[in-house]
Design brief:
Number of domains: 1
Order of helices and strands: HHEEHHHHHHHHHHHHHHHHHH
Shape: globular
Number of helices: 20
Strand content: under 5%
Oligomer: single chain
Structural class: mainly alpha
Distance between the termini: 16 Å
Low-confidence stretches: none
Radius of gyration: 21 Å
Strand order of the largest sheet: 1-2
Mean pLDDT: 88
Largest sheet: 2 strands, antiparallel
Number of strands: 2
């Protein structure tokens, strides 16, 4: 069974790099790249596994759940594993050149692999306390990575991020403790069965509020978003891409939807609240982004806005809404990672994030400029790029559910997103080249390779809704639609 490898490989890599990376300069490059490649190939293999068996269980230490800890692979966890490990591989390739300007590069790789191990652990664990442990491994690594440059701005952003992250973790841990005291078990499938037979609705609603605040902070939903516009711009571009591309989705959205759809059961009140918070995040994020002149800060606010689309779609709870939400989760991971890598390429050559100091970069940095244009069109929902299809599905799902106001909000947010990225194109890549940038050139090959690959996925990503590739998304959608049947599937697989 390959499931333990998703945690063991990055943990072993982190250990070996921390032990030997100081003495062998290229060891971090080789180990981390090879580990991420293997993890991505293994994640693709999980897609094949779920075609034959809808759910697979690994019993840690041979102990049968719920007495022992188990790792669970189903359509949703396989979908998330592919998304996380694809972005991780491309970010690591980008970092081979980008991180050269930092000292102690091996420390970056150690923390990166720890963060990846934590994210993979959150995705595959079937135990609630283990979910918290893996969540903390990923979170603490990300706090250190935000401060990796050790400049004043980075340290301040990391401190703020750590404080808000600790508050979020406290809410989550309290929710887990209350759930454990009520059900006397930490196995997620077992909790679901216990709650099916006895329900204290007041206590469960209180626990859901705690989880919504905790995971809402982790995913930077409005009004829990205050830390993100500082943390994401301050971090190295590689980490900004990971934080915005996958970390907030795994620690925030994935954990939340797994709990409310498969474990506790979603109520009409919670559905209404999720839809409202999604629409609020869409509009607030994009409005705040419009006034930004800091390239990376503008992208950070758009992360808040795009997470709103994901929550709006999934919060609808309909087959079409969940499909659109998960599709946009994948698409956002791709185009937002690309945008942050583009911003990193610009800063790598220019040393500034201020859009007003740029201009005419298209002539000097054609690959960066063209991939940024593709990503900008994708995030704005312009056809035929991948973002158009997922946004269209979410809007149609809102109309189908007779939430016409939310459909209108999604359209308005998309128009404002287009306006925001037209500003980026105008001030950064078009116009007249500033005299002081005459000597700049395109970034190194490794950085270009990652950007081109992500741009290629943006162009062809819409094919995921065609019948030939639909299984990738549909298997994840089915897990959420089946709701609390998750518990029965887990225990059937154990037998």
């Amino acid at each position: 069974m390959i499931l333990p490898l998703f945690v063991a490989i990055p943990l072993a890599s982190a250990f070996l790099i921390s032990l030997l990376g100081k003495f062998f300069r290229r060891m971090g490059d080789v180990f981390s790249s090879f580990s991420c490649l293997v993890l991505f190939l293994l994640s693709l293999n999980t897609q094949y596994s779920i075609l034959n068996t809808k759910i697979s269980i690994y019993k840690v230490g041979g102990w049968i759940p719920p007495l022992g800890i188990c790792l669970v692979l189903d359509g949703l966890s396989s979908f998330m594993l592919v998304t996380v490990n694809l972005i991780s591989l491309l970010v690591i390739i980008y970092s081979l050149s980008y991180m050269e300007k930092y000292t102690d590069k091996w420390k970056f790789y150690t923390l990166f692999m720890l963060m990846l191990s934590g994210m993979n652990g959150v995705i595959i664990t079937g135990d609630l306390f283990n979910l918290f442990v893996f969540l903390e491994i990923a979170s603490i690594s990300s706090y250190a990575l935000v401060a990796f440059g050790v400049e004043k701005e980075e340290l301040e952003a990391s401190f703020k991020y750590a404080i808000m992250g600790s508050v979020a973790s406290s809410f989550i841990l309290l929710g887990i403790a209350l759930l454990y005291s009520y059900t006397s078990t930490l196995n997620m499938a077992d909790i679901s069965l216990v709650l099916a037979s006895k329900q204290n609705r007041f206590l469960l609603n209180f626990i859901l509020v705690l989880f919504l605040m905790g995971f809402g902070l982790k995913s930077a939903l409005v009004p829990f978003h205050a830390w993100l516009p500082d943390a994401h711009p301050s971090a190295p571009a590689s980490i900004s891409a990971m934080l915005s591309g996958v970390l907030i989705k795994v620690l925030g959205i994935y954990a939340l939807i797994r709990l409310i759809f498969n474990i506790i059961d979603i109520s009409n009140i919670l559905i209404s609240l999720l839809i409202f918070l999604g629409a609020l995040s869409m509009l607030v994020g994009v409005i705040l982004a419009l006034s930004q002149w800091d390239f990376k800060r503008l992208l950070a606010y758009h992360s808040i806005s795009q997470i709103g689309y994901v929550i709006l779609g999934i919060g609808l709870g309909t087959p079409l809404g969940i499909l659109g939400g998960l599709f946009h989760l994948f698409n956002h991971s791709v185009f937002k990672s690309l945008l942050f890598l583009n911003s990193g390429a610009v800063v790598y050559e220019l040393g500034t994030r201020n859009l007003q100091e740029m201009g005419g970069l298209r002539n000097k940095m054609p690959i960066t400029a063209n991939t940024n244009l593709i990503a900008s069109m994708s995030i704005a929902g312009i056809p035929p790029f991948n973002g158009f299809f997922s946004k269209l599905i979410i809007i149609l799902a809102c109309i189908q559910a007779k939430h016409f106001g939310y459909a209108f909000c999604a359209i308005v947010a998309s128009i404002l997103t287009l306006a925001s990225f037209m500003k980026v194109q105008k001030y950064a890549f078009f116009g007249k080249l500033n005299e002081k940038w005459q000597k700049i050139k395109e970034v190194p090959l490794a950085m270009c390779l990652s950007m081109l690959t992500l741009a290629f996925i943006c162009i062809l990503g819409g094919l995921l809704i065609t019948p030939q590739f639909r299984g990738f998304l549909q298997s994840a959608v089915d897990v959420l639609l089946n709701g609390k049947n998750y518990a029965n599937l887990v225990f059937q697989a154990v037998k």
